Amino acid sequence: MDLRNIAIIAHVDHGKTTLVDELLKQSGAFRENQAVAERAMDSNDLERERGITILAKATSVEWKSTRINIVDTPGHADFGGEVERILSMVDGVVLLVDAAEGPMPQTKFVTSKALALGLRPIVVLNKVDKPDAEPDRALDEVFDLFANLGADDDQLDFPHMYASGRAGWADAELDGPRKNLEALFNLIVNHVPKPRQIAHQDEDFSMLATTLGADPFLGRILTGRVESGRLKAGATVQAISRIGQKIEQFRVSKILAFRGLGQTEIEEAVAGDIVSLAGMAKATVSDTICALAVDEPLEAQPIDPPTITVTFGINDSPLAGRDGKKVQSRVIRDRLMKEAESNVAIKIADTPGGEAFEVSGRGELQMGVLIENMRREGFELSISRPQVIMREQDGQTMEPVEEATIDVDDEYSGAVIEKLTGTRKGELVEMKPAGAGKTRIVAHVPSRGLIGYHGEFLTDTRGTGVLNRVFHGWTPHKGAIPGRRAGVLISMEDGEAVAYALWNLEERGKMFVSPQEKVYQGMIIGEHSRENDLEVNPLKGKKLTNVRASGTDDAVRLTPPTILSLEEAIAYINDDELVEVTPNAIRLRKRHLDPHERKRAAKANG
């Protein structure tokens, strides 16, 4: 059977996973009466809830005697470690672009990696049936993007199609028949080259491990593309690290190939195909699995370095251990090491005391997803404010810069530009009308300046703005950037918050807690309306007397509290604060102070 390997690239919410659903349906991968969930490739709970692809996954379809292996790539730059490895498995890419929004920052990030590998893209303009679609403008923007990213003449001469993933059609012309995806299938078969590895089927077996998974019955599973030779189930092979060190020899217990949404056991893997192997004990991502006669490892794609670090510690608050079962530092360390093994974009280091761990990664979203997965597994953690990783270059301190692309209503553009280019030390790159009363702003902003900015941005734009960010490069250190301006309200008592007390505190600022919620000394229960921190008593009830009131008492009417999401909480805190994360709660608190410091702080705050 003929073989093609492709990856699908798209920005968050441009319809990539929905299009893959339709490709699977129209290729006959499902039975007619088979119940299939919407966005079938989003197999993990967090992906379904957030509507984003976090883990790269493969599937395969058959089209007129050609097997097409399709790899669904993450759309967010924070998960770029997945993208860089995945693109080394494929021979072509389908770039999916929303016909209304045009190419966005995350598209730019993944596309630059694909073009650098020499892949020739197919451009699909999706959602052309929407009323605000401008496919011609979007197509021009894609061409300009490719030119800016240094595409060669072959890559600039890309074929394009007009499509609606939800409606299940793609045509070469905008006013085509709009019936099915047959034209897209044919274009993939004709445009994407056969894997060059097919020519090396008679050589010794070798395969580069790209992703690591686990199965309760099979143990560790490594997935990758077979670079040369053939492999039969039961054969003995070896694993070699990137630097040429021999890790282990093992017997391949099972070979699994992607067929539709599932994996099917096969007897033999051949060069060019994407397969999963089971049976290894130590081999991991970026290792070469090869025949015993092979001495040299395959070249692994270098991974961009992490840009932020967050400290994960044990939860030592008074409410520790009530929700989660996994609270010891040893258990947390084992879980983080397991994550670092399968996710090469994450680095783990012990802190001097050994009770906490520094986790380095690509961005707040990547950290948020890791923490969210851990809390659902029963872990309790305390998380520090993200710190940007600096590096020295020619005796100069360099810091990471991100490209922020913002779509905002015209009336709020001034406030956004003032914040980004003023206090946050950004540089305005481009500003142009985006239609429908909106302005598109592109700015290069230090990563430090964007930590904690999203909440402020939503306030400034009345919730209507859209902010996308992607790593751009390194720049000389730009000096101090002020953090959060407002102080916080800190509980001075342990117990359950009382509605009457919260009602009296509302004039002091906005609340983060509800009545009957457990609080403790040092816990942050709200944001102060002024710049200083203030210790308050949320347990203070109304004094009762034996004198009847002349009228009815005013009913206590509370403003609903501000509920921070995990990423918002991590970005909100200052350096002397922590986020307490348990399976059932997200709380903010001050780092522990000794009693004398606490009294001094209380006196200073009145």
CATH topology of the largest domain: Rossmann fold
**Helical residue percent band:** 10-25%
**Radius of gyration over alpha carbons?**
27 Å
Q: What value does the average pLDDT take?
A: 81
- Beta-strand portion reads 25-35%
Termini separation (Å)?
78 Å
Describe the biggest sheet? Answer: 11 strands, mixed
Structural class: alpha+beta
What's the CATH C level of the largest domain? Alpha Beta
- Which second-level CATH architecture of the largest domain applies? 3-Layer(aba) Sandwich
Please report the total strand number as a whole number: 35
Total number of domains: 4
Low-confidence blocks of residues: 31-43, 600-606
Structure commentary:
- This protein has 606 residues and is of the alpha+beta class.
- The chain has four domains: 2-194, Rossmann fold; 198-290, Elongation Factor Tu (Ef-tu), domain 3 (Beta Barrel), CATH 2.40.30.10; 391-476, Alpha-Beta Plaits; 488-570 and 589-604, bipa protein (OB fold (Dihydrolipoamide Acetyltransferase, E2P), Beta Barrel), CATH 2.40.50.250.
- It has 15 helices and 35 strands.
- The strands form six sheets. Strands 18, 19, 20, 21, 22, 28, 30, 32, 33, 34 and 35 form an eleven-stranded mixed β-sheet that branches.
- Helix 9 crosses helix 14.
- Residues 31-43 and 600-606 have low confidence and may be disordered.
Topology readout:
Elements: E1 2-10, H1 16-26, H2 45-50, E2 57-63, E3 66-72, H3 80-86, E4 92-98, H4 105-116, E5 121-126, H5 135-148, H6 153-156, E6 160-164, E7 169-171, H7 182-191, E8 206-215, E9 219-228, E10 230-232, E11 236-240, E12 246-251, E13 254-259, E14 262-266, E15 268-270, E16 274-278, E17 288-290, E18 308-313, H8 329-342, E19 347-350, E20 356-361, H9 364-376, E21 381-383, E22 387-388, E23 391-393, E24 396-409, H10 413-421, E25 427-435, E26 438-446, H11 447-450, H12 453-460, E27 466-476, E28 488-491, E29 495-496, H13 499-505, E30 509-511, E31 518-519, E32 523-528, E33 534-536, H14 566-572, E34 577-581, E35 586-590, H15 595-604
Parallel strand pairs: 1-3, 1-4, 4-5, 5-6, 28-33
Antiparallel strand pairs: 2-3, 6-7, 8-9, 8-17, 9-16, 10-15, 11-12, 11-17, 13-14, 13-16, 18-20, 18-21, 18-22, 19-20, 21-34, 23-24, 24-26, 24-27, 25-26, 28-32, 29-31, 30-32, 32-35, 34-35
Domain Tr-type G: 1-196
InterPro entries: BipA (IPR006298), BipA_C (IPR048876), BipA_GTP-bd_dom (IPR047041), BipA_II (IPR047042), BipA_III (IPR047043), BipA_V (IPR035651), EFG_III/V (IPR035647), EFG_V-like (IPR000640)
Main location: cytoplasm
